[in-house]
Every structure is written in structure tokens, then in C-alpha cells.
Amino acid sequence: MAAPIWAQQVQNYPGALTGTDFDLTIGRTLVNFTGRARYAITVNGSIPAPILRWKQGSKVTLRVTNTLDTQTSIHWHGILVPFAMDGVPGVSFPGIPAHQTFIYTFKVRQAGTYWYHSHTRFQEQLGLYGPLVIEPQEPDLVRSDRDYIVMLSDWTDENPDSVFLHLKQSSDFYNFQLPTVADFVDDTRTVGISGALKRRRMWNEMRMNPTDLADVSAATYSYLVNGATPFANWTAIAKAGERVRLRFINGSATTTFDVRIPGLTMRVCAADGQDVEAVDVDEFRIGVAETYDVLVQMPQDAAYTIFAQAMDRSGYARATLAPEPGMRAEVPPMDPKTWLSMADMGMETSGMAMGREQPGTTMRMPNNGSHSAPRHSMPEMSGPVADMQDKQPQSGHEGMASPMPMPPRQKPMISPPMTMSVMQTGPEVDMRSMNPSKSLADPGPRLRDNGRRVLAYADLRTLAPPLTLGPRAAKSSCT
Q1: Is the dihedral of CA 276, 16, 296, 330 positive or negative?
Q2: Which residue of 10, 128, 202, 443 is most buried, as measured by CB atoms within 10 A?
Q3: DSSP character at residue 254
Q4: Where are the beta strands (DSSP E) in 378-420?
Q5: Residues 6 or more apart from 145 whose CB is under 8 A from it?
Q6: Mind listing the pLDDT tens digit for each residue in 416-465?
Q7: What is the C-alpha separation between 186 and 436, in angstroms, rounded?
């Protein structure tokens, strides 16, 4: 099998720096993603910053020069380093002052796909982020003909301070999917006026919004792949029969993406730098700062769209996998903008089995004894919770409505029935989740039941313990 062809060979892709000794310069660079020129904060003049390629077990030295008039920093995300090298101002080091150089030096203990970014104010949002690829000491378990970085990010022409101010004034400032009168009319046709009113009253009384999936949307964001807009169509070259490794990195400031390549199956081989048991999927959700390595096989000499829609479905990033530059494939429509469910909010309305286990079923007594009490139904409540379910198990307070046996000369402990007021912690908390769950096998809102095979966290199982520096797992279906 031929050696991988690295992504920097694709036109307009940021360059790669390889070795153990690096010089990085942070400065302001004029960019134009929307037709309006803006200043970004870059490393060596590019967005994303250059690909850094290290070797597991080596010692690297990075001289970072700050040409800005303000402080800056670089944090090596997911990399285990001495605390003074971690790059978080005010926590692990004082930051890199204006017009000064800071030298990072540490041993590389890990292998896999990671990234680096600024931890100073909103500099990451302004463009200071880049890919990090660490080659393993042992032969790589993922074998491919071509190997590309696919770095997802979000860009705004606004001053990030203004974006932050808008969100502090109104958390829904960039949400243009709020329920409308037209939506209400549509609901009355399916569930009637009473059902439509009840549905909205429940959300209003909780002071929540059923389309709150992202703080910032395409109302201000442009979504990028390797620094390219959907119109620019960044393209990775691959020919029929070739196995292509795509290293997805979510370097965005706030955006979660749902990623798929229509017409191709993706084999997930690594997550956050860790080799995992291979799992074939059609789509995966990638949160901020997460990384996934996937393998795809090109069935023919044709173009395929790498489609990454924002979780709120307000916009998308797009790239192309094709045998020749300039080829394009159809861009699929974005998925429907459905409402969140009560289960998504931790307020499940169905399947509330009385036998479900919840934490807190055993309560420590004042005399250091313990007891288990039978489950009981929750008293009637008014307000949104009453609309959601008639009965709710409260295993953490079971048996509290009646006196409990106590040793002689000790007064019984009597507690009132459980009410919503007991669960509130103060004016800063509007509502607490009534039914929290792990949901590791759930793909998540706007992905479940979409007819595609969607990756869930429960699908991910490591092949070897993290930080294994010796021989790695000898078996992988990604080879």
C-alpha cells in the first residue's frame, strides 16, 4: 500500500511543520470569508494554523512569538504536558506578553489526532487554532492511501466581544427558529387548539425554548472547512479504490456539527486521539474540541460531498472528496428543524417505569444505619411538571412521608411530601432536571430516527488503555 499523501498537497491548504523544533508567530492577518475584509489572529499567517506533526516519544520545542499588542497563548488540547507548558493564562502560566517570545518544551507521550488553540479571551474565535497530528511509535493501526485533516470551525465578521454582549443581553439573540404564529396554526391542524396551547404553555412556564440548540447561529457565523467557506469548496483528492483517512477536528468556538458523506460509509477508527474498535456509520455528531478519525473507501472516480451541518440547522460547512480538483457533488438539504423533546430537557414524559433505578435509593441515617423504602408516587403538582407527567418516582426521598423506626429516646425524622420547591436551590436556578440519564446510546436531538446509522458514544470502545507507550493492540479492522 502506498504511503499516505498528506493534506498539505491540496491547493490552498495550510502548510505542515514536521520535526521537533518549531517557530510559530502569532499576529494579525487580513481575511475575507464573506465579502468583507476583517482582521483575524493567525499563526504564521494562516487559518487554520499550520499542521504540526510530532512523533510519539520525542521531545518538542516550540518558540511562540507574539507580535500582537495584547497578551496571547497557545494551549495543546488533550496533550499531557507539565503544567507550566499547558498554555492557559492565569491557571498554568502568565500568558505570552505583547511582543515577546515564550518557549514551550515537553515530551510527547501520546499519539493520534489533536489540535491547538489560544486560551486568551476570544482569540480562538478570531482564528487562532490549528491541527496537531502525532505519529505513533508503533506502526499505525489505521492504514490508508491518503490522509487528510478536515478542520471544522465557525467565523463571524462581528467583534466577538459584541457577540458575547448580545448573548448576555438575550440568550436567544441569534436564534431565528423560535416558534411563530404560523407554527401555532400548523400545530392546531394536527393536535388541535388545546394541544397547541398546552404545548406552548409548558415551555413558557419553564422559561425554556424548544429550539435552543445553539447559542450562536448562521445569523452571524460562516462555517468553514480548513479555512474555506462552502462556496470555496475545499477539495481533497482521492481516486477509485483508494482508502482515505479523514481526521475530523471541531475547532469551532461554539458550534456542534453533524457530519456525513452521502454515498459513503465512514468507519470510525479513533476518537479524541484514542484508537477505538472500528464502527461503521453514516453520520456522527462532533462537539466543540472533539476529534474523530474515519476511513472511507472510494468506490468510483466521482465527487462526494463532505457535509457538516450545524446542530441547529441554521447553516453548514462543506468540502468535497474527488479524483480531480474542481469537481463538485450535490449538496444535500439540511435536516428538519424539529423541537427538543421533554426527554432532551431531562423532563421525560413517557417510559417513566416505576422500577427504573435512580441514584440515591439508599439513605444514610443519623445512627449510621441505612434503609431502603418502597417506591411511592409523587404528590400532585401544579405548573409545567404536572403537564408533563402524572406520577414521578423520587427514589432519593422514598419513604419520607411517614415516620421511620428509630432507636429509643431518639425522635423520629419526619419530612413533608416532595414538592418542586424542595428541589429548587435558589433564585439562580430556574429548574432542575427531573429525570437525568446517561443517554450514551442516544445519537441526540435532530439525529435520532433519521433513517441513517448515527454514531453514539456507547459505540466507542478503546483498543488499548490510554497513554500506552509500548506495543499497541495487534488487531484492528481499520488496517
Answers
A1: positive
A2: 128
A3: S
A4: none
A5: 1, 2, 4, 5, 238, 242, 243, 244
A6: 444 444 455 677 776 677 777 778 999 999 999 999 999 999 999 998 77
A7: 31
Mean per-residue pLDDT over the chain, rounded:
84
Nearest residue to 282 (alpha-carbon basis) of 443, 469, 43, 174? 443
pLDDT recorded at residue 204: 82
Q: Inform me whether the pLDDT recorded for 225 exceeds 70.
A: yes
d(CA 320, CA 307) in angstroms, rounded, equals 8
Q: Are 108 and 114 in contact (CB under 8 A)?
A: no
CA angle 165, 167, 173 (to 5 degrees): 120
Grid cell locating 33:
470569508
CA distance 59 to 75: 17
Spatial distance between the Cα atoms of 197 and 188, rounded to a whole number of angstroms: 9
Residue length of the chain = 479
- pLDDT tens column, 72-84: 999 999 999 999 9
Going from the N-terminus, what domains does the chain have, and what CATH number goes with each?
5-142 (2.60.40.420)
Cell of 458: 456507547
* CB-based burial, 282-316: b 16+ in 10 Å, e otherwise: bbbbbebbbbbbbbbebeeeebbbbbbbbbbbbbb
* CA 210 – CA 204 distance, rounded (Å): 10
Q: Residue 143's pLDDT band (boundaries 50, 70, 90)?
A: very high
Contacts 24+ apart (CB under 8 A), 176-182: 176/217, 176/219, 176/314, 177/211, 177/312, 177/313, 177/314, 177/337, 178/209, 178/211, 179/210, 179/211
